[in-house]
Design goal:
Chain B: The active site is at residue 162. The complex is a heterodimer of chains A (421) and B (360). Chain A is an alpha/beta fold and 421 residues long. Chain A is built from nine helices and 34 strands. In chain A, the strands form seven sheets. In chain A, strands 1, 4, 5, 6, 8, 9, 10, 11 and 12 form a nine-stranded mixed β-sheet that branches. Chain A has a seven-stranded parallel β-sheet with strand order 14-17-20-23-26-31-33, with no helix packed on it. Chain A has a seven-stranded parallel β-sheet with strand order 15-18-21-24-29-32-34, with helices on one face. Chain B is 21% helix and 32% strand. The chains are: A alpha/beta (421), B alpha/beta (360). The complex binds guanosine-5'-diphosphate (GDP) (2 copies) and magnesium ion (MG). One guanosine-5'-diphosphate is lined by residues 6-8, 52-54, 80, 83-86, 89, 108-110, 218, 220 of chain B.
């Protein structure tokens, strides 16, 4: 029997995802029309013998999360539970804290996945690889190739070219170490907890030497820095390298990029989710997702890479490209929406133009990843995708360029390169 | 009667339009700038127009030949070998201007207003002195040279360049009428009429100011060209409302050539001029723009305060604003944003221009 854990973080995380994470927990933000973690859940549901999925995070239990989990259980026919940490315990602390829950029922192995990644999830190949590389005594990290400069933003893995054993692991190094990076998707045997326990005990000893230490801090464990770093070179940690699509989803801009990756997978995984140009319907270019309840005028032109949410209204002569339109939004006639996330229940007036600048990976470098690091460079807002928060109103005929509009704002003029509070 | 129009040089400030045609032939409200002046002159009884030009232009010459026939008047070209400024051209054309002893008009070429030529003749004859300058009121006199004159008679006392304290709010509008005697003051060399001739005439009590009623604009650069268009269309509204286009989707003063085609669900105006053979596709929004002959605006584009030069093409969902000027035969690809772009003729634009700049 197998299990999976998805690390979903909590409300204090995902700041680069503001203002969208104000309205919905980031793991539920729709990417290619479905909540970010639904892609993980669906991939898990396809793994034979995977019996339970545990979401671990420090969100207060909330309506959005529970109703999503309920729906997902029914749709994917797999048990799903949310386990709440009493505070942020780090990427290793949460699974250690809930180790009994994870191990109950006796799984031979379990996956651990960061919620904020987009991937083709090669879970079955990882299982096969695990069997061939040590089985119950070994652990597998999904790795991929990055370019030299961008590798510094990730966990970097040096591996034996033949055995794929991880010889050295370093998280976000200051100088180049390796172009193989950690994808935030792991396959562990239950024995991993012995190694996490070592870290836990070491923390405890160190903290006893300090004054005023709180017992809580002993529970904060980072999988990457505390566990992988010490496991490297001990014949237990292996990297399974994938060529499949992969990206982090840190910024709102990377959500548009991740949508593009998932939409292009839909061609083979979910052709029914892709819209096509039909008699009496809108013109579709490339990959487009339209929620069945959305109302799209036949004279609108959508795509490539557009996701239209529930109950969205798209008026006559509207153009949408490289954008996510969240549920309840209204795009009035002749408006033009490019490289933008239109927030829930927002309105874009007639002939308005809402446009952002994509931060796409360098198309000429197959190993390039999306940069989603800083909002500001030299004190200036770096041109990014435009984000309209929830319930924002854009008047007719204005242009909103490279801007972030916080929720519930009614604008009365054009804005460029600004954060509008 | 005769009139001399100071056509001057290359019209660089109205580029990129003047890279395709000489400035006097640039269409202003669906008629070459020069014809606005020439037709008004003809109406006031002028039968000989002299164009003072400092460059050769076959296009201008050919066009003027046709206008000669059409209007039944004589049009002469007075070519300078070197630019003679605003006064020198009068000396060069001396023979033509003194064929009889009538007073003659002198005009700056890019001025648009309700030309008061008949009133000028009356006013000039009434005071009987050498020269009359038409003056117009401005809001910010400190930016201009102002004319100080006696309110009753109009006799000019002096000129003050960029006054720092208020002395007058009237400026020289570039429309004059002179008696032939003025030619004795002007030598055949580069001379500025404003700086070198007028002050002396004023001192001798030979120069009078006549105040212009109604609008006035020097349309020598794109921004002012558009402002002038708004003023001109407003005066059309008063004098010839039947020239303006009305109907669903049209707002305010809009001039549309009868050969233009307008699509469904457009919203056009206020202050728009659409030239002959222009095609405006469905769902286009235009305000405060001039669209010149043969251009096409593709569906759902949005244009404000822009000039689309001859035979250009603006793509679907393009947004153009802030005095964007397209030269002749420019193609703007779909979905682009042009903010204050100045695009030279025969260019194809495939990237947005988010900040004002020149596209070579
Ligand atoms: N449950 C839980 N998840 C976390 C915690 N910290 C980070 N995560 C999740 O782990 C993943 C990786 O986060 P993190 O290591 O902080 O960011 P990265 O190193 O920039 O990828 C994300 O999906 C986070 O939501 C935590 O304290 N508890
Ligand atoms: N023929 C001729 N016309 C000129 C010359 N210089 C200026 N002009 C014209 O005289 C008018 C007034 O010119 P100027 O005083 O330079 O004003 P501006 O060009 O409107 O700033 C304009 O119509 C010019 O085209 C010249 O050297 N020769
Ligand atoms: Mg991390």
């Amino acid at each position: 029997m197998l299990k999976a854990v998805i690390l979903i973080g909590g409300p204090q995380k995902g700041t680069r995802f503001r203002p969208l994470s104000f309205e919905v927990p980031k793991p539920l933000f729709p990417v290619a029309g479905v909540p970010m973690v639904q892609h993980h859940i669906e991939a898990c549901s396809k793994v034979p013998n995977l019996k339970e999925i545990l979401l671990i995070g420090f969100y207060q239990p909330n309506e959005a999360l529970s109703s999503f989990l309920l729906k997902a259980q029914q749709e994917f026919k797999v048990a799903i539970r949310y386990l709440q940490e009493y505070s942020a315990l780090g990427t290793g602390g949460g699974i250690y804290h809930f180790r009994d829950q994870i191990l109950s029922g006796g799984p031979q192995a379990f996956f651990v996945m960061n919620a904020d990644v987009c991937s083709a999830f090669p879970l079955v190949p990882m299982l096969d690889f695990h069997k061939q590389h040590g089985g119950s005594q070994s652990y597998v990290i999904l790795g991929t190739t990055a370019n030299r400069s961008q590798s510094l933003n990730y966990g970097c893995i040096v591996a034996n070219g033949e055995t794929q054993e991880v010889l050295h692991y370093v998280e976000k190094p200051g100088t180049f170490v390796s172009d193989i990076i950690n994808c935030g998707i792991y396959l562990f045997s239950p024995s991993i907890f012995q190694h996490i326990a070592e870290v836990f005990q070491r923390n405890q000893q160190e903290l006893q030497l300090e004054e005023n230490s709180s017992w809580q801090r002993t529970e904060v464990i980072r999988l990457e820095q505390d566990v992988f770093t010490t496991l490297a070179g001990r014949g237990k940690l292996y990297v399974y390298k994938t060529e499949g699509c992969w990206s982090q989803i840190k910024s709102a801009g990377s959500a548009i990029y991740a949508s593009r990756l998932y939409l292009s997978q839909y061609g083979s995984t979910h052709p029914e989710r892709l819209a096509s140009t039909k008699e009496g319907g809108p013109t579709i270019r490339g990959n487009v997702y339209i929620h069945p309840t959305a109302n799209v005028d036949p004279s609108a032109v959508l795509g490539p890479n557009v996701s239209i949410g529930m109950g969205v209204t798209v008026g006559a002569g509207v153009r949408i490209r490289e954008s996510i339109v969240l549920h309840g939004a209204v795009l009035q006639d002749h408006s033009c929406v490019l490289n933008t996330i239109v927030g829930w229940d927002s309105t874009v007036g007639r002939w308005a133009r809402v446009e952002g600048t994509p931060s796409d990976p360098n198309p000429n470098d197959p190993y390039s990843k999306i940069d989603s690091e800083t909002l500001f460079r030299e004190g200036k807002l770096t041109p990014s995708i435009t984000i309209l928060g929830c319930n924002v109103s854009i008047p007719a005929e204005v242009v909103i360029l490279n801007s972030i509009v916080l929720p519930h704002k009614e604008l009365s003029r054009s804005f460029k390169n600004q954060i509008i509070l | 009667m005769k009139a001399l129009i100071l056509v001057g040089g290359y019209g660089t400030r109205l580029r990129p339009l003047t890279l395709s045609v000489p400035k006097p032939l640039v269409d202003f409200c669906n008629k070459p700038i020069l014809l606005h002046q020439v037709e008004a002159l003809v109406k006031a009884g002028v039968n000989h127009v002299i164009l003072a030009v400092s460059y050769m232009s076959d296009m201008l010459e050919k066009e003027m030949k046709e206008q000669e026939k059409r209007l039944g008047i004589r049009i002469s070209m007075s070519h300078e070998k070197e630019p003679l400024g605003t006064a020198g051209p009068l000396a060069l054309a001396r023979e033509l201007l003194t064929e009889n002893s009538d007073p003659f008009f002198v005009l700056n070429s890019d001025v648009i207003c309700d030309f008061p030529f008949e009133e000028m003749v009356r006013f000039h004859k009434h005071h009987g002195k050498e020269g009359t300058i038409v003056v117009t009121k401005v809001e910010e006199p400190s930016k201009y040279g102002v004319v100080v004159y006696e309110a009753e008679s109009g006799q000019i006392q002096r000129f003050v360049e960029k006054p720092q304290v208020f002395v007058s709010n009237k400026i020289n509008s570039g429309l004059y009428i002179f008696s032939p005697a003025v030619l004795d003051r002007i030598q055949l060399r580069p001379t500025s009429i404003e700086k070198e001739i007028f002050p002396a005439m004023a001192q001798e009590g030979q120069l009078f100011a006549m105040e212009l009623q109604g609008f006035w604009m020097d349309i020598g650069q794109p921004k002012d060209f558009l402002t002038g268009m708004c003023m001109y269309l407003q005066s059309v509204r008063q004098k010839h409302p039947e020239w303006l286009h009305v109907g669903p989707g049209f707002i305010g003063n809009v001039l549309v050539d009868p050969t233009a085609k307008i699509g469904q669900n457009c919203s056009i105006g206020p202050n728009v001029t659409i030239g002959p053979g222009v095609t405006v596709e469905d769902g286009v929004r235009i305000k405060r723009c001039t669209i010149m002959k043969g251009s096409r605006l593709h569906s759902h584009s949005w244009l404000e305060s822009s000039i689309v030069g001859w035979s250009s093409s603006v793509g679907q969902w393009v947004r153009m604003e802030n005095v964007t000027v397209l030269g002749e035969d420019v193609i703007v690809n779909d979905e682009l944003y042009l903010n204050g772009a100045n695009v030279l003729p025969h260019k194809c634009i495939s990237e947005s221009v988010p900040e004002p700049r020149i596209i070579m």
